[in-house]
Amino acid sequence: MNARLDMLKQLVDEHPGEAFPRYGLAVEYANRGDIEAALQQFAKLLEQHPNYTAGYQMSAQTLLRAGRSEEARGVLAEGIASARREGNSKAEGEMQAMLDEMQ
């Protein structure tokens, strides 16, 4: 289990500007229940790659699991805007559905 985390950290260190390794690291932290580490990685990912729509969706899901629904709403709104810019109607619809369920 730690080998996977170590491998992902190494990939991020070797390719700090690439989106996918950082996304993988953030998801791994989220899966382990390390919410703060996951959110830090999602924040770095979205700072460097503001149109990486999957990052918004997973960040919002992580926030929801942590009971931080107001923050999740904000992330979803940003993600929906990103998906619209990218023409990604599938991701836009999924995030809008998450937002609607929260209402």
Topology:
Blueprint: H1 2-14, H2 19-32, H3 35-48, H4 53-65, H5 69-86, H6 89-102
The helix-and-strand class reads mainly alpha
- The CATH class, by name, is Mainly Alpha
Count of discrete alpha- or pi-helical segments spanning 4 or more residues: 6
Strand segment tally: 0
Total domain units: 1
Q: Alpha-carbon distance between the termini?
A: 37 Å
Low-confidence stretches: none
CATH architecture label name: Alpha Horseshoe
Tell me about the largest β-sheet: none
General shape? globular
Name the CATH superfamily classification: Tetratricopeptide repeat domain
CATH topology: Serine Threonine Protein Phosphatase 5, Tetratricopeptide repeat
Order of helices and strands: HHHHHH
Rounded average pLDDT: 96
Strand proportion, as a percent range, falls in under 5%
Computed Rg: 13 Å
